[in-house]
Amino acid sequence: MDSLDQQKYNEFRKKRVKLLKRLIILVIGFFVVMPNIMCIILFAKLNKTNKTLENIYSKISILENIKTEQMANLNADADTDDASSLTKDVVLKVQTDAEEYAGYKRIYLTFDDGPSNNTNAILDVLDEYNAKATFFVIAKNGYEEEYNRIINDGHTLGLHSYSHVYKDVYSDEMGFKNDVNRIYDFVENVTGVTPKFYRFPGGSSNTIYKSDKNELFDYLDEMNLTYVDWNVASNDSTYGGLSANQIANNVLNGVEGLDDCVILMHDANDKSSTVEALRIIISSLQCEDNVIFLPITDNTIRVKHISK
Ligand SMILES: [Zn+2]
């Protein structure tokens, strides 16, 4: 190799080394700068995600507040013991019978003065037609099964005084209170169920009790007992007795034009015509469209002859 070649070779080598150095600097530069750029991009993205999450958390918190408020409203409404005060947007709203069975004729068969030797026959007819009813009972020993069957069959068991002897029940305010307490305890002991409904012997409009009836209404309130009268009379207690057809006609005529029909009937030993009439009444009314037989409950419209 002569000196010229040697010089060219050296220059070529120098250029290669220079190129190689630049390349190394570029590679190093790339690996140093790129992670920083990536970090900046990731940081920006993280920031954005954080903001989105904060937004979601604040929305969840608003929803939780609304839910808590609704639950508080629901509890407050339930405490008022007034189903109609529950607002419609609360899911657990209690419907009245009129709302639940809107468009139906709502029939509330009620039987006073039982139990008797006819109680099981009445219950059999109700069972046969899948109709529910309400029994306002007095105290009678030896009928424990009947009191309990009324409840077990899905009917309402209400109170109708302990003795049904007017001169005791309506002797004075104290006499009335004692009588209510006695039948209340009697029914609770026999059935284990706390009574909620009461029917005055002779109805709330009876003229036997001469003093201020507000005292009696107040006492029933204190006992958490709601009294219920009737707006259809079967007249099955008419002196001398009516035939099954006559009783049924009284009821079928009486329910005409009414949406809520609280029918007064009797459950007594000498009233087997009532049992026969019951079959005619239910089968006739069930032939019509949209008729339903219901027990009296907290959701039932209150039929009262007189009130405070
Ligand atoms: Zn009675």
Describe what you observe in this structure.
This protein has about 300 residues and is an alpha/beta fold. The chain folds into two domains: about 1-80; about 100-295, Glycoside hydrolase/deacetylase (TIM Barrel). It is built from nine helices and eight strands. The protein has helices at about 5-80, 95-100, 120-130, 145-150, 165-170, 175-190, 215-220, 245-255, 270-285, and strands at about 105-115, 135, 155-160, 195-200, 225, 230-235, 260-265, 290-295. The strands form two sheets. Strands 1, 2, 3, 6, 7 and 8 form a six-stranded parallel β-sheet that branches. Strands 4-5 form a two-stranded parallel ribbon. Helix 3 (about 120-130) packs parallel to helix 9 and helix 6 runs parallel beside helix 7 (about 215-220). The longest helix has about 80 residues, at about 5-80. The protein is rod-shaped. Residues about 70-90 have low confidence and may be disordered. The protein binds zinc ion. The site of zinc ion has 5 residues, from strand 1.
Which secondary structure elements does this structure contain, and how are they paired or packed?
Elements: H1 3-79, H2 97-100, E1 105-114, H3 119-128, E2 133-137, H4 144-152, E3 156-159, H5 166-169, H6 173-191, E4 197-198, H7 213-222, E5 226-227, E6 232-233, H8 244-254, E7 260-266, H9 272-287, E8 291-293
Parallel strand pairs: 1-2, 1-7, 1-8, 2-3, 4-5, 6-7
Helix pairs in contact: 3-9, 6-7, 8-9
The protein binds zinc ion.
